[in-house]
Amino acid sequence: xxxxxxxxxxxxxxxxxxxxxxxxxxxxxxxxxxxxxxxxxxxxxxxxxxxxxxxxxxxxxxxxxxxxxxxxxxxxxxxxxxxxxxxxxxxxxxxxxxxxxxxxxxxxxxxxxxxxxxxxxxxxxxxxxxxxxxxxxxxxxxxxxxxxxxxxxxxxxxxxxxxxxxxxxxxxxxxxxxxxxxxxxxxxxxxxxxxxxxxxxxxxxxxxxxxxxxxxxxxxxxxxxxxxxxxxxxxxxxxxxxxxxxxxxxxxxxxxxxxxxxxxxxxxxxxxxxxxxxxxxxxxxxxxxxxxxxxxxxxxxxxxxxxxxxxxxxxxxxxxxxxxxxxxxxxxxxxxxxxxxxxxxxxxxxxxxxxxxxxxxxxxxxxxxxxxxxxxxxxxxxxxxxxxxxxxxxxxxxxxxxxxxxxxxxxxxxxxxxxxxxxxxxxxxxxxxxxxxxxxxxxxxxxxxxxxxxxxxxxxxxxxxxxxxxxxxxxxxxxxxxxxxxxxxxxxxxxxxxxxxxxxxxxxxxxxxxxxxxxxxxxxxxxxxxxxxxxxxxxxxxxxxxxxxxxxxxxxxxxx
Length: 560
Prior knowledge:
Elements: H1 9-34, H2 45-105, E1 110-113, E2 135-141, E3 153-157, H3 164-172, E4 183-187, E5 193-197, E6 202-208, H4 215-224, E7 232-235, E8 241-249, E9 252-254, E10 259-260, E11 276-277, E12 294-299, E13 305-308, H5 315-323, E14 332-337, E15 342-347, E16 355-360, E17 366-368, E18 377-379, E19 389-392, H6 397-420, E20 434-437, E21 445-448, H7 468-521, H8 525-557
Parallel strand pairs: 8-19
Antiparallel strand pairs: 1-5, 2-3, 2-6, 4-5, 6-8, 7-8, 7-18, 9-15, 10-11, 12-13, 12-16, 14-15, 17-18, 20-21
């Protein structure tokens, strides 16, 4: 066509070469600017999508790596907690060991003290109420003995010419036939007979007049020896009556096991007194009279406090009435163990020397709680005075009370550490499990199982150093807890090592994935720089060639 400009083929080739060179220059410039040789799927679809897949996995693992790091800190917090717990448990063990030494060196004593000057009587058997052949029958029981038990009885028999001194000697001679000394008799400065249980055992003294005598004769024997205020006429539940006094060593009185008569299950705090029975399925408080029946409790021989025990009162109601009594609340406290079904009365003032408990009742048959005696005691006389159960502490009572307080304070701190050893809401020391995922599919993980490292979870009980056995038990609890904590510390240390190893592996895997993606997409700056120089040179040459070709065509045109 007349309007078309016709270029020679050589000129066209040079123009196309310049266009291609410019494209190469643009591509090289872009690679140098971005640092990538594959900027989009148009550049290299295979490499682009392969690199994207590698980058995506690296990103997923990076998010998991953050979680792994948090798991490391959670386990470290638990490890710090176990180290602190170990120190506290060792401290608790030390306190319990001190209690073992104190209770071993100065065992608590149960003490019965008469109120009659026996030295003024001369020949005891010449006195009204004391006859040749009369006996004092002694029995001993370890407070920790599992019931039922069959006590070993030791008798002291009165003979003509016995004096207060010979009676003391005969009672002390009982130690010669016991595995270890358990009893001590002496005369007070007033000449009264004092009988003590010296090894922490429960001591029972039965006053047994010679021959088939009425109950009043047995009571007269007890009264003549100065124990009329503590010896009571009791029924054994099998139609036999006894006159006896019981004294308990230690700072705590513990009843025999109580049961609910309707269900035969161990009694609970909410059960009414009228529902209670002993292990022999015998109702303990049959025929309660709300107007006349009271639970008697006093401290150190002081005025007994009367607590109403009508049938509608619950165990908790009885406990509250004792603990809220202003005359008792500073000296003792009542509690109930729902696991064992036992009522507990303990001294909380280290100066307390004895606790007296009993019943005042018009009922024909009314069973006592059997504090530290082991079996129900049935009152068969009416309107009886209190049955006296002494709880007399030894010389180290104040130190032992302080050790109990120190021990319980340590248990509170153990609970505090178990409560505070959490990290971002996860507490391995309070039974929270920690799950650490190691791959993007979340099918490869490690579960660090939590534990209950509160004081109760570790098997600790409230301090009870009333006896050497109680202190030894506390030492055992501390040793067992320490082993448990150390084992758990070793376990989480292993888990921590695994998590840290997997974290290192994941970090290296992320680097490998990113390196692989870079191999597919990242440009070689040296290579691209050389390419740029070559393309620029090519472009300059192409322009020069194009100029030469143009000059050739213009030279021909000048002929015309």
